[in-house]
Structure formats: C-alpha cells, structure tokens
Automatic annotation (TrEMBL):
Its EC number is 1.1.1.23, 3.5.4.19, 3.6.1.31. The gene is HIS4. In the C-terminal section; belongs to the histidinol dehydrogenase family. It comes from Imshaugia aleurites. SUPFAM superfamilies: ALDH-like (SSF53720), all-alpha NTP pyrophosphatases (SSF101386), HisI-like (SSF141734). This is Histidine biosynthesis trifunctional protein. GO terms for molecular function: ATP binding; histidinol dehydrogenase activity; metal ion binding; NAD binding; phosphoribosyl-AMP cyclohydrolase activity; phosphoribosyl-ATP diphosphatase activity.
Length: 902
C-alpha cells in the first residue's frame, strides 16, 4: 500500500477520545503512525511497538537516539521504518549493522527548519550524502521543519531522476492546506494526531482526515467515485464497491463499513440485513486510484446472495477457519472437531502424528494431503485458544521484520531423531555449526531463560542415555555430535570486515570495536605497557600464593620439555644431519574474557612462552567496562615478562596482533583459546600470506569425556562432568559407563542433578547438558573405542587400574588418571596445559606445549667422503627431475676433489 500520510503520536501521552484530534482507535483506521524514540522514551517506544504492532504500521523517529543498538532493537520489535540522522545512517551502513533490504527500512532525516539557501544546492547535497554511504539501496528521505515549498518542489523534481521510496515531510506551519497540498503533491506528510479530525463541523480548524485520504486519491471515473475493494482480515476479497468523500467521512466517524451505492447513495453495510462490518483500516493503492477497506464481517456474509463473498463462499484456509469457529460456537452431535476441543491430549497427539506423517510424505499429492491434515489440527488448537488466522499472520509478519535472525537449527532432540547434522560443521569444526544471534546477539555462553527446559527431564537436570547394544551406530554417532555453532559463513561475514578495518585503520579501529563490544568507551589507548603500575595488580595474598604455585608447576613441566642438545645423526659415513630448536621471537597470547575472565589461560600460555625464551610476549584480553584489565592478568603479565597487554578482545585483538598498529607490535604467532569470533579471526589472519603469522590450533568450547566403571564414585563422576558443563551452553560432557547396574546409573544421575542444582551457573549447565549424553557400553575396550573416536579435549579415567588403560588412549587432549585426578587440577595447577584441541581435533593437534613456542632448524654437515658417498643418489635424482644445475653442484665438487688429488 502506498504511503500518503503518517499520523504522529506522542507515546508518553496517547490520544484518547476526550482529546482534541483523533483518538487511538480512529487512528488505527488510517493504519500508519509515526512515533518518536529518545533515550528517555526508548523503552516506551518498544512497549508501544509490542502492544500495537497488530493495529498499526509503525514508523519510529530515532534521530535523538545515541545508541545504534537502540535503533536496531526498534526494527527488531516490528518498526516498519526508522527515521535516522545522517551520522546514524553512515554508522549503520559502515558497520554493516543493516544490509540488503533491511537498509531500505531507513529514512534519512534532514532538519531544514533553520537553514535557508538555494534549494537546488540543498537537494543536491542531500542526495550526495545518501549516495556516499548507501549507494545501492534506495532509501527514504525526510525533510523536517519545512517552511519553503521551493525545496519540496525541487525534491519532487529530483525524484523523477533519483528514486527515493518515500519522501516524508514535517511542516513548520500547521496549516490545513499545506498538509493537503503536500499529500496531493505525492509527498508523505507527517501530521500530529491532535491536528486531525473526523468531525470538521465540530473542529473547523483541524485537518479533516477524510479529505487527506481523498487528496491522495484520483478518480478516473466520470462520476468521480473511488472503486473500493472490501477484504476480510485475512485479505480475502469480499467484493467491489464504491466510495466518495462523504462515505469515507462517515466510515471514519462510525468505524463501520460505509460505502456509496450508485443506486441508493450513502450505504451503511448491514443497516438493513444486520450483516454489519467493523472497520479495521482503509488504505489507498499504489497509483492512488482505488481504495481498500479491511473489515471484520459479521452475519451471513458480505454478498446480497448471503454468501461470504461476492465471488462465492470462502475456500481453503478461510473456509476451514470459519468452520472451526462455527463448531466452537455450536457443534452438531458427534462432531469430531468438537471432540478435539474437549480432549486437548487427543489434539496434541494428532498434531504430532500428522507432523510426523508430513515428514515422511514424499510425493506431491501426499505432501499436500498431510500438510492439509496438519493444518486442520493446528488451526483447531488455535481456534480453541481464541487465536485467529490473522493473529498467526501478524506473528509471521513480526518475525519477518526482524533484522537479527535465528539460524534456525533444530533442537537437539529433534535433530537427533531424524539424524540431521549441521551442514556447516566443516571448516574448523570449532567455528562451525548455533548461536545467537541471534546472529549478532547470540553470544556463545549465555544462560538459558529460567523457564527453558533444555537439559531437564521431568524437572531434573539429566543427560540422555544411550546403550550401545540397544541403539544403532548412527543414533549413537549423532548423540555424540558436538553442539553446532553459528555457521562459518555468518561468522566470517562478521569477522572479515573487522580484520580489514583494523589492518587499515590501526589503533582507532581497535578502539572503536572495544567501545562497541566491551562498552569500554572511556578507553583512549588500546595498550597497557610494561612496567605495569603496581596499583593495577593488587591481589589478596591467597590469590598470589595460588598463582605462584600454579606458575611453578607449569614452569617445571614445560621446562622439562626442553631439548637440551640438538639432535645429531650420521646418516651415512661423513653425512651428519642435525636439528636444533629456536624460540619464536614474537608471540601474541589471547586470554579470553567474554563470559568469564580466565587468568589461568594467561599462565598456561605465558609460562611456556617465557620458558621457551620468546623475546617479545604480548597478551591480549578484552578489558572490563571501565577500561581496566583484571589484576590477576596484569600480575601474570608482569611475572612472565610481557612487553604489553592489548586491551581488546575478539577478531579486533587478533588482527592487531597479526598486523600490528601504531602502538601494538606485530607478532609471529598467535596462541590461545577463544569464542567463535576469536577462532575465526585466527583462521583468517593465518591464511593471509601478507600477515606472516601462524596460529596454534582450533581451541573452542570446553568438553570432557569421563569413563566410569563399577569402581567409580558417583560424586566424583558428577563433579567432573559439571566442571566443564559450567563453561558455557556450547560445552559438551559425555559419560561412558562401563557395564553399570541400573542402581549405579541412577546414582550418577541423582548426583548430577543434586550437585547441578546447588551451583551458581546452573542455567548455563542446563544448556550444556541439553546436548550431553550418557553412553552405556559393555566393557572397557568398547569404552576406549568410543573415546578414541570422539577424541575428547579432556579424558577422565575413573576405572580400576586406570594407569593400565592409558596405553589404549590414541586421541585426547589431556588425560586424567584415577579417582584422585579431577580435571580442574589440569585447568589450574597440576602443571599440564589447559589450552587444548576441542571438537575432535585431538586426532591431529597437540595441546599447547613448549614446542608450540619454538621452531626447528635442521643442518647438514658433510666431509669429502660423505659427499662422495651420497653423490650418486643426488645426481641420479637431479637427472630424473631434469634439474641440471642441481646435478652439477655435486659433479663440479667431485671433479674438484679428483683434480686436487692429481
Ligand atoms: N579449548 C580450550 O583450551 C579453552 C580454554 C579456555 C577457554 N576456552 C573457551 O574459550 C571461550 C571463551 O569465549 P568468551 O566469549 O568467554 O570470550 P572471548 O574473549 O573468546 O570472546 C569475547 C570477545 O568476542 C567478541 N564478540 C562478542 N560478540 C561479538 C559479535 N557479535 N561480533 C563480533 N565480535 C564479538 C568481542 O570482541 C569480545 O571481546 C569459551 O568457549 C571457553 O569454553 C577454551
Ligand atoms: N577447562 C578450560 C579448558 O577447556 C580451561 C579453564 C580455565 N579456567 C577454568 N578452566
């Protein structure tokens, strides 16, 4: 429907029927409203959208908002379009917060109330500003405070060559005729509700609403009438009638379907038949020569022949809805539908049955038949609850206005049922696969809503059970699938522009993202350099002691990994090959800080870097909101001799380390775990040959696999599973129970539930437990087979003679042996490293260790005889490869040897 005018409403002071101007109900007949959101009224605007999305098409003026997130949330809550200032348009477009057709929901607002000047120049500069930032998507323009018609005329002229979908105006003077002229000229006038009336006799100074409508219309009929299509709420056409200025005026005054009969004049539908119509709204079509009335029809129907429409009875979904409503009011004896209304459990079962039959249907006819059955039962449930087809459509419309969309993964239980795997589980395995975003918004580790039952069964936090003898291989394979994350493409689309901006824009770009993601807006430099001020590392004595103990154990274990002397092998007499290691000179260590601050990761990366002898160690970690870094990390940075701490997280920190900026030194290798953005950032920079940087491995959401036999202590088993489940909802924990009794399984489950319920992060745990499993196997050999296939980040062996099982471990990041080795000792203090491969990457990667910070150089040292001994092999192979210079490098030397002999 074309836009002609918007009624502006003060959301803090909603118009009511006693006021001057139009009341809310009458405004809904005109359908399009304009509201203003300021930092103070932002929440009111959201509440208005949520409450009235079904009644109006709502446009929001956001020019006074400071936060781009607030603008996006208005669009996400159903705002049809947002009016933004030029700087907001620029930022939204540049940050790619709106792309594609969502950009078309912007209207750029220019305030001309105080500026005069050549209209031609003004119009040109407006057009230039828009084209500079949104060159490809047509967007609307709004001229605010217009007091000069020359400017509007010029804009109108320009619109013939430059397309703006909507030219909106707010007038400086409140004159009736000006509004009417604007609408007649094809502009969309924004008119305050208190300057409009449906009763011009009573309020002669206000603008008559019906005149505004007819000003937008042009009749191409000799009698000047406007053809009017009448539809029901679902958009089904009831018939064709005619309107004129008078009938529109009465329709607006009475809120009913009122038309002009070419035989009888003013026609109030249903006045005689009783089949009245409640007016929902009226609108003008795209070329302004026809009207549409949307109405709620009562009685027999619209047509004088007593059918629902002038084209016959309803059909399809509308007929079904009508029948169901009739049955609800009064059903004939024995009606099946009426039984469904009375037996909700039967209805529920039928919905599931039909949904499953639809899934199984293959050919076109079957699919249509099964979809029809499912619709019947689904709509029965809706009608029983008083939900109409219109309500469903509104809901769909609201979802379609969202700019941040869910990826739409199936819940694990359903995905597993049908054996669906996320197609995007490819690239790294770590950054592949759900989140949240909601795209932009779905941080990996967010607590579940309180009423979310994920991970719970009958109110208990419980993992799903599978038994290898009872379930087929495919079912178990699916059950052991890691939870999927946001698709690789989505993440790459977010990360790549960030990296490019930091590479090109340096410090300023890093700061921009730190302000945005960490909200640390007071930060003016992205770096904290050593020597670190003592006041930034004040810690309680017990924390210092804990760090010192962990530091020393980690140092000892990693120092023991040093190769004391070079490897030296004489491969043939006189041919000596050697290999020696050298530290990587400059390393960047990423310490996560999104959902939890992990100083222990600073130790796990920093201590081996120091032991290896890296010359330059730079830490990077997202700062807190006030711009500071947690004192434990500063203290550890000081202990390991770090050059500096980059006060940034995510892909921006990775890019700064890879390319360097004015203040951040470039590094040769980046190590450390992180979320999907960090991991994707590491992948991107390591693939850029111009960056000259390598990375450690894909280290994503934490996971643990516990193998427990009859000797295992349920309390220990449950506590180990929970220690990794509390990391994030994207973590996965697996229990392999070896030949357990039912009592033992129940004991594991009771403990898990009881301990989880007492933990502060139980909501996160529930999320993780949703995709976690207990697998029952017959013996330890089978347990090891499954464990090796899964290749867990952490493997815990709570079995008899655990030490002997170690020899069967082929793939795991780190193993914890026996009842007295909880995984958390490895997380903090035992000495082994906690930066480990996840997602099954333990099949090809090691966890961080000393060699992650070194590289090897080889050397060959030959005597004369040595060269003679190897010469024929070298020369023959050079000949085969037709590389003559290679061959000669040997033959010339042999000749020289021979001559020297003579
Ligand atoms: N495998 C291992 O060895 C190991 C060790 C420790 C931690 N971990 C894992 O590391 C992860 C840490 O993740 P985290 O989120 O807590 O911290 P993080 O520091 O990895 O990520 C936070 C950063 O993500 C960026 N970000 C957030 N939302 C964004 C968006 N919408 N667009 C672009 N960038 C965005 C921000 O820059 C923010 O600074 C967890 O999954 C944890 O389990 C793994
Ligand atoms: N378990 C994580 C590695 O997957 C590391 C960690 C840090 N803090 C606590 N735990």
């Amino acid at each position: 429907m074309a836009e002609h005018f918007l009624v502006s409403i003060d959301i803090k002071n909603l118009p009511s029927s006693g006021d001057n101007g139009l009341a809310l109900e009458t405004i809904s007949y005109l359908h399009r409203v304009h509201i203003t959101a300021t930092p103070e009224t932002q929440q009111d605007a959201i509440d208005f959208l949520r409450k009235y999305f079904n009644h109006y098409i709502i446009y929001c003026d956001c020019t006074a908002l400071e936060s781009l997130e607030d603008i996006l949330s208005l669009l996400n809550n159903g705002g049809a379009k947002v009016f933004v200032a030029p700087w907001q348009m620029k930022a939204l477009a540049e940050d790619r917060l709106l792309v594609g057709q969502d950009l078309g929901r912007l209207v750029v607002s220019f305030d001309r109330s105080r500026s005069d000047g050549d209209p031609e120049e003004i119009a040109k500069s407006i057009s230039g500003e828009i084209k500079a930032f949104v060159p490809d998507t047509p967007i609307g323009i709004h001229i605010q405070g217009v007091h000069d018609w020359k400017l509007l005329d010029t804009m109108n002229r320009m619109s013939k060559t430059e397309y703006y979908p909507g030219r909106y105006v707010t007038l400086a003077h409140n004159f009736q005729n000006e509004y009417i002229k604007a609408v007649k000229d094809g502009l969309v006038a924004i008119i305050p509700a208190n300057e409009l009336t449906t009763n011009p006799k009573r309020s002669p100074n206000l603008v008559p609403a019906h005149v505004l409508i007819t000003s937008a219309l042009r009749s191409d009929r000799p009698d000047g009438l406007f053809p009017t299509i009448v539809t029901n709420e679902n958009g089904i056409s009831l018939g064709l009638v005619y309107s004129n200025e008078k009938s529109i005026e009465v329709a607006l005054q009475t809120g009913r379907g009122v038309y002009h009969s070419r035989r009888h004049g003013l026609w109030i539908k249903g006045q005689e038949s009783g089949d009245t119509q409640e007016l929902i709204n009226m609108s003008v079509d795209c070329d302004a020569d026809a009207l549409k009335f949307t109405v709620r029809q009562s009685g027999e129907g619209f047509c004088h022949l007593r059918t629902s429409t002038c084209f016959g009875p309803y059909y399809g979904v509308s007929r079904l809805e009508q029948t169901l409503k009739d049955r609800k009011e009064s059903a004939p004896a024995g009606s099946y539908t009426s039984r469904l209304f009375k037996e909700p459990k039967l209805l529920e079962a039928k919905i599931m049955e039909e949904a499953s039959e639809l899934c199984e249907a293959n050919d076109k006819n079957d699919i249509a038949a099964e979809a029809g059955d499912l619709l019947y039962f689904a709509l029965t449930k809706c009608v029983a609850a008083g939900v109409s087809m219109k309500d469903i459509e509104h809901n769909l419309d609201l979802k379609s206005t969202k700019i941040t969309r869910r990826k739409g993964d199936a819940k694990a239980q359903w995905a597993k049922k049908v054996g669906h795997q996320d197609a995007s589980n490819g690239l790294t395995g770590v950054i592949s696969g759900s989140a949240e975003q909601e795209a932009l918004k779905e941080a990996a580790s967010v607590p579940k809503e309180r009423d979310d039952t994920a991970g719970s069964q009958n109110g208990r936090i419980r993992m799903k059970r599978y038994k290898t003898g009872d379930s087929d291989v495919k079912t178990i394979k699916n059950a052991l699938q890691r939870p999927s994350q946001k698709s690789t493409d989505d993440i790459m689309d977010i990360v790549k522009p960030i990296i490019k901006e930091v590479r090109d824009g340096g410090d300023l770009a890093v700061l921009k993202y730190t302000h945005k993601f960490e909200k640390a807006t007071s930060l003016t430099s992205p770096i904290l350099r050593a020597p670190f001020p003592p006041n930034l590392m004040q810690l309680p004595q017990e924390t210092i002691e804990a760090i010192n103990t962990s530091y020393e154990n980690i140092r000892r274990f990693h120092a023991a990994q040093r190769e004391e002397k070079p490897l030296r092998v004489e491969t043939m007499p006189g041919v000596v090959c050697s290999r020696f290691s050298r530290p990587i000179e400059r390393v960047g260590l990423y310490v996560p800080g999104g959902t939890a601050v992990l100083p222990s990761t600073a130790l796990m990366l920093g201590v081996p870097a120091m032991v290896a002898g890296c010359k330059k160690i730079i830490l990077a970690s997202p700062p807190r909101k006030d711009g500071t870094i947690t004192p434990e990390i500063v203290y550890i940075a000081h202990m390991i001799g770090a050059e500096s701490i980059v006060l940034a997280g995510g892909a921006q920190a990775i890019a700064a380390l890879a390319y360097g900026t004015e203040s951040i030194s470039k590094v040769d290798k980046i190590l450390g775990p992180g979320n999907q953005f960090v991991t994707a950032g590491k992948m991107v920079v390591s693939n850029d040959t111009t960056a000259g940087v390598s990375i450690d491995m894909p280290a994503g959401p934490s996971e643990v696999l516990v193998i427990a036999d009859k000797s295992a202590h349920p309390k220990f088993v449950a506590s180990d599973l929970l220690s990794q489940a509390e990391h994030g909802i994207d973590s996965q924990v697996v229990l392999i129970a070896v030949d357990p009794s039912e009592e033992q399984l129940t004991a594991f489950e009771n403990e898990l539930h009881a301990q989880a319920m007492a933990l502060p992060r139980k909501d996160i745990i529930r999320g993780a437990i949703e995709h976690s499993v207990t697998l029952v196997v017959k013996d330890i050999a089978e347990a090891m087979e499954y464990s090796n296939r899964y290749a867990p980040e952490h493997l815990i062996l709570q079995v008899k003679n655990a030490e002997t099982v170690l020899s069967s471990v082929d793939h795991a990041g780190s193993v914890f042996v026996g009842p007295w080795a909880p995984e958390s000792v490895g997380d903090y203090s035992a000495g082994t490293n906690h930066s480990l491969p996840t997602y099954g990457y333990a099949k090809q990667y090691s966890g961080v260790n000393l060699s992650s910070f070194t590289k090897h150089i080889t050397s060959s040292n030959l005597t004369r005889q040595g060269l003679r001994n190897v010469s024929s092999a070298v020369m023959q192979l050079a000949k085969v490869e037709e590389l003559e210079a290679h061959r000669r490098a040997v033959s010339i030397r042999l000749k020289e040897m021979d001559e020297m002999k003579d």
